């Protein structure tokens, strides 16, 4: 598939919410409990082919990379904005990513909100109802997933892939 027609899905969200883990689970069916969050190298941490012509772009959530983000989401067809259901702060961060995407990304971009770490439900700080209501107000899809147990991951990417515009 020529690079010019490749469809890109960018993963955004605060550091340590589990973006790289979501990709690892989806692509390799693996989870790494002690994996450190992506530090240092670059904003774009890995590019993973999903199927022919579809790529996931995993990004670094650290604040110092924030200014690079537009370069990546500008050409994206879909964005998965992740937060950690055990962290209200990460939900606030997700809301601000979504506001930025709605202002600056391609108007046709498909935006999905993903509440990760569903296996840690006993430590939940963000209720399903609050996240769903926010998603409804903003016209987004909302999924609750666990990169650890794989719950919801396949379904989320499947749904996003179906909704990604075909050029
Ligand atoms: P940055 O690359 O810094 O932006 O972080 P990230 O969003 O890629 O987070 P990463 O995937 O590196 O995960 C951070 C930590 O959370 C790791 O210790 C993971 O093992 C853990 N983690 C990720 N997803 C889950 C999950 O679904 N459940 C649990 N229990 N832990 C998770
Ligand atoms: Mg990462």
Automatic annotation (TrEMBL):
Record's keyword annotation contains Nucleotide-binding: yes
Keyword annotations from UniProtKB, A to Z: Nucleotide-binding
GO molecular function annotations of the record: GTP binding; GTPase activity
Listed name of the protein: GTP-binding protein RAB5
Primary gene name: FGENESH: predicted gene_13.270
């Amino acid at each position: 598939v020529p690079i010019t027609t490749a469809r890109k899905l960018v993963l955004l969200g605060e550091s340590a919410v589990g973006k790289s883990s979501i990709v690892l689970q989806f692509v390799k069916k693996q989870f790494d409990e002690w994996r450190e969050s992506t530090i240092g190298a670059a904003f774009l941490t890995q590019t993973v082919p999903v199927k022919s012509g579809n790529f996931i772009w995993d990004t670094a959530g650290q604040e110092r990379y924030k200014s690079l983000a537009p370069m990546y989401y500008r050409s994206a067809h879909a964005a998965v904005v992740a937060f950690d259901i055990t962290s209200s702060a990460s939900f606030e961060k997700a809301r601000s990513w979504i506001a930025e995407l709605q202002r600056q990304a391609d108007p046709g971009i498909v935006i999905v909100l993903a509440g990760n770490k569903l296996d840690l439900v006993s430590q939940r700080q963000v209720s399903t109802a609050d996240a769903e209501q926010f998603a409804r107000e903003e016209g987004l899809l909302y999924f609750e997933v666990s990169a650890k147990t794989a719950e919801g991951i396949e379904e989320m990417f499947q749904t996003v892939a179906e909704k990604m515009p075909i050029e």
